[in-house]
Amino acid sequence: MRRRQAIGSVESDEAVAGRFDVAPLKGPLRVREARQRLAALEQVIRDGEAEGTRLCESFGKQFPTAPAKIVRYNDRSLTFYRWRQSSARRWGNPSTTAISLTGQAGRALLARVPISARGHWLNYERRRIYLNMRLSTASYELYRLQDWLDGLDAIKAIERDGLSVDAPDNQNERG
User: Fold this and answer.
1) Which domain range does residue 90 map to?
2) Least C-beta-crowded within 10 Å: which of 93, 98, 109, 127?
C-alpha cells in the first residue's frame, strides 16, 4: 500500500492540495509540467526575439532616415522593443530618448512624419506593442516558474545537506 507523500518531503516536489491553496488554481502544478512549460516559453521568447529583429530591420529598410526607429532595449524591464528618437541634427533632437508614439512626444514626432507614412508608422506601433505584450507575459511566466523551481531545489538541498551558513544565498527575501 502506497502512502501519500508529505508536502516538502525529499521524495516529492509536486504541489499537493492543501488548505492554503488558491481557489482559482485548477490543480497542483507538477515539476515535470513546469519544466515542459519553461521549454515552451523559451521557444516563444526566441520566436518573439526573431520577430522583433525582423520588425526593426523592416522599419529601418522602409524608413532609413526616419526621426525615430524601433530598437531592442537590453534592460531588465519587460518592454523589450521601443521607439528611440534619432539624434541626427536634421531632426533637431539633442539626444536619443525612448518615446511612445501614442504619448505627447510621439504625437509631436508623428506630426513631422508625412501623412502618407503615418498609417505605416501606426501599423509598426501595433506590431511593436503586441510583440512586447507577448514577450513580457512569456518572460514573466518564465521568471516565476524558474523561481518556483529554484525554491524547490533549495528546499531539497536543505533537506539533503542540512542547514549550512556557507550556502549561497540565491533566493531573495520576498519569497
Assistant:
1) 31-158
2) 98
